[in-house]
Design a protein that fits this description.
With 292 residues, the chain is mostly beta strands. It has a single domain, classed as Outer membrane phospholipase (ompla), Chain C (Beta Barrel), CATH 2.40.230. The chain has 2 helices and 14 strands. The longest helix is centred in the N-terminal third of the chain and has 16 residues.
Length: 292
């Protein structure tokens, strides 16, 4: 829990500082809702459902001095789906449809050289761990990443930016594992690894900001793993050596002042979790409010 406290404190510090003057900031909220229902006398096999999803995206960047640039991003998303029983038309308990907490802070030394040194911190989690419905675990698991290396701003205009960085990173995965379901007792387990990280960020906007697209590709190649000795001699002993992939894509189009279409596509590959890649796609039409 101490690691969790410091992780949340570090992210909040970055975003509280970024509210000072002189920062380039963007913050928007998006809420979508889909609903249909049927009476208990309805025939035909249909069942009602209610789905809602809310998300927000925040970014703050500032050239603190001619040689120091600081950028912070925070993505939050949560949604649920409620469904009726097909026969009785009674409503079931809701289940999650999306859940994300993702904050990152990057400091670059803009020295005017071929590449700029950087340090970065990232925290990824979710609001509710629903993998075991009987035990509610909030903000679990947590993945903390610290990295340092060289970055290159490959392209930058008023509407487009392409930044790539390569460095060495450390990761800690903090997971409150369930010891006893009946008593809801949990035990915190932490694993560590380290290796090379390559991250590329691209964003662009069209039609005077009405259409925007951003993508983030993260590749991580572990060179050591704290649990490697325990895996020795098992079929999974070398899985941790495989390259982890996280590719996120966000396409947003403003139809009216407060009406926006959002498409989110994420591809994940982590051989320790699944031998196949995992794909997530969310298409939403809903109300959007841009604070600044």
């Amino acid at each position: 829990m101490k690691n969790l406290f410091f992780a949340i404190l570090a992210v909040l510090l970055c975003f509280s500082v970024s509210h000072a003057s002189g920062w380039e900031r963007t913050l928007d909220f998006n809420l979508t809702l889909t609903q249909n229902s049927y009476s208990d006398s309805w025939v035909g096999g249909e069942a009602g459902s209610v789905s809602w999803m809310g998300n927000s995206n925040f970014k703050a960047a500032k050239q603190l001095s001619p040689k120091v640039n600081w950028s912070n991003t925070l993505k939050l998303a949560f949604g649920q789906t409620h469904q009726q029983e097909q026969e009785t038309k009674n409503w079931r308990k809701p289940f999650k449809s999306t859940d994300l907490i993702d904050g990152e802070s990057i400091a670059r030394l803009t020295l005017g050289a071929f590449a700029d040194p950087y340090v970065a911190f990232r925290a990824i989690s979710q609001f509710l761990d629903a993998s075991v419905p009987e035990v509610k675990r909030y903000v679990n698991p947590i993945t903390l990443s610290e990295s340092a290396g060289a970055s290159k701003l490959l392209h930058k205009t008023e509407t487009t930016e392409l930044l790539s960085r390569l460095g060495f990173g450390l990761r800690q995965v903090i997971n409150r594992e369930i010891v006893d379901t009946l008593s809801q007792k949990t035990e915190t387990q932490t694993t560590n690894d380290g290796g090379f990280e390559w991250v590329t960020d691209f964003k662009t906007s069209l039609e005077k900001g009405k259409v925007s697209y951003s993508t983030k590709l993260t590749l991580f190649k572990a060179m050591f793993y704290s649990e490697s000795d325990e895996l020795e001699g098992t079929p999974e002993q070398d899985y941790w050596k495989s390259v982890d992939v996280n590719w996120e894509n966000i396409l947003s189009a403003s139809i009216a002042k407060y009406l926006t279409v959002n498409l989110y596509v994420q591809f994940l590959y982590d051989k320790e979790i699944d031998l196949k890649g995992r794909l997530k796609e969310t298409l939403a039409l809903g109300l959007t409010y841009r604070l600044f």
